[in-house]
TrEMBL record:
Superkingdom of the organism of origin: Bacteria
Family: Belongs to the diphosphomevalonate decarboxylase family.
Keyword entries, A-Z: ATP-binding, Lipid biosynthesis, Lipid metabolism, Lyase, Nucleotide-binding
Segments forming domain Diphosphomevalonate decarboxylase-like N-terminal: 9-161
Gene Ontology biological-process entries: isopentenyl diphosphate biosynthetic process, mevalonate pathway
NCBIfam families for this protein: mevDPdecarb
Organism: Ligilactobacillus equi DPC 6820
Molecular function as annotated in GO: ATP binding; diphosphomevalonate decarboxylase activity
Enzyme Commission number: 4.1.1.33
Pfam families in the record: MDD_C, MVD-like_N
InterPro entries: GHMP_kinase_C_sf, Mev_decarb, Mev_diP_decarb, MVD-like_N, Mvd1_C, Ribosomal_Su5_D2-typ_SF, Ribsml_uS5_D2-typ_fold_subgr
One cellular component term from this protein's GO annotations in UniProt: cytosol
Lineage: Bacteria, Bacillati, Bacillota, Bacilli, Lactobacillales
The name this protein goes by in its record: diphosphomevalonate decarboxylase
């Protein structure tokens, strides 16, 4: 057996965030979430099932790495396909790893698509979403483009992402301020577990999450950018408040994070409609309309450098690629 397939998936940034699991093994979240898929950040992955291999093989950005993390996920694919063949996985990641820019979302969405096809499976997009979720919860959303909701569900079948508006004509996007592209000090999985166990605010977070999603859907339908931004910003701050209230507390913020937030608030005070959000990492993402992008970049560039301001528009869902990957 020597079957190969390649796929590309984009990252997504949650506007209403997922932070905590109900089931660690199946990765069933405590609450639903809503995201925007981005075109600028993506992962290309090629998977080849090869009978000559004696173990799974993993190459990322032309560097050979242990396949330890990928093997349990590939085992799920092998189980579904009824095969035992080991796989060679080759990936090129066009997004900083583990820095709060959703690299795991694009990585596992691309892996789910490429591995399932290479194994001879023809999965529907909901099936791909469920499979990607088993690698990284946010990867369930990267199967689709545009605005996407990951419905919390209660088991493997019902916890799945669904598209809200894949082909959006709304001229909005995210400006990522890359403050630190290094590995974050606390992995998302560990941070979530600690918060669920120790943060006294956690029950309120779960209770309020659905209200945020309902309001975001209304904002999307009405093209109400102010409502979209205000809810996204407050949702992010409440997520990080959970971390500060944990025992012991922790934070993904750095001094530059606070500086970026302050500058976004200054821009808004000057009449520029823009809002910030942050995930598990120090980097700040600015939700804005394309018409305001030149003003925002000009204001932020002296502080952070033009090369560290990366704009992304709404992106596409996962797609299959032809031929071998070359980076």
């Amino acid at each position: 057996m020597l079957n190969s397939a390649s796929a590309r998936a984009h990252t997504n940034i949650a506007l209403a965030k997922y932070w905590g699991k109900r089931d660690e093994e199946l990765i069933i979240p405590m609450n639903s979430s809503l995201s925007l898929t981005l075109d600028h950040f993506y992962t290309d992955t090629q998977v080849t099932f090869d009978d000559s291999l004696t173990a799974d093989f993993f190459e990322l950005d032309n560097r050979i790495l242990p396949a330890t993390k990928l093997t349990p996920f590939l085992d799920l694919v092998r189980q579904k396909a009824g095969i035992k063949t080991f796989a060679a996985v080759k990936s090129f990641n066009h997004v900083p790893n583990q820095a709060g820019l959703a690299s795991s979302a694009s990585a596992y969405a691309a892996l789910a698509a490429a591995a399932s096809k290479a194994a001879g499976l023809e999965l529907t997009r909901p099936e791909l979403s469920r499979l990607a979720r088993r690698g990284s919860g946010s990867a369930s959303r990267s199967i689709y483009g545009g605005f996407v909701e990951w419905q919390e569900g209660h088991d493997d079948l019902t916890s799945v992402a669904v598209p809200i508006e894949e082909e959006t004509d709304w001229k909005i996007g995210m400006l990522a301020i890359i403050l630190n592209a290094g590995v974050k000090k606390i992995a998302s999985r560990a941070g979530m577990q600690h918060v669920v166990k120790t943060s006294p605010y956690y029950p309120a977070w779960v209770k309020e999450s659905q209200a945020d999603i309902d309001a975001l859907k209304q904002a999307i339908a009405n093209r109400d950018f102010t409502q979209l931004g205000e809810i996204s910003e407050s949702n992010a701050l409440r997520m990080h408040a959970l971390n500060l209230a944990a025992r012991p507390p922790f934070s993904y913020f750095e001094a530059s994070t606070i500086r970026a937030i302050t500058m976004i608030e200054e821009l808004r005070a000057q009449g520029v409609s823009c809002y910030y959000t942050m995930d598990a990492g120090p980097n700040v993402k600015v939700l804005c309309q394309e018409e305001d992008l030149p003003t925002i970049k000009a204001y932020l560039a002296p502080a952070f450098g033009t090369e560290n301001l990366l704009f992304a528009r709404p992106g596409q869902g996962v797609k299959f690629l032809e031929g071998d990957l070359h980076g």
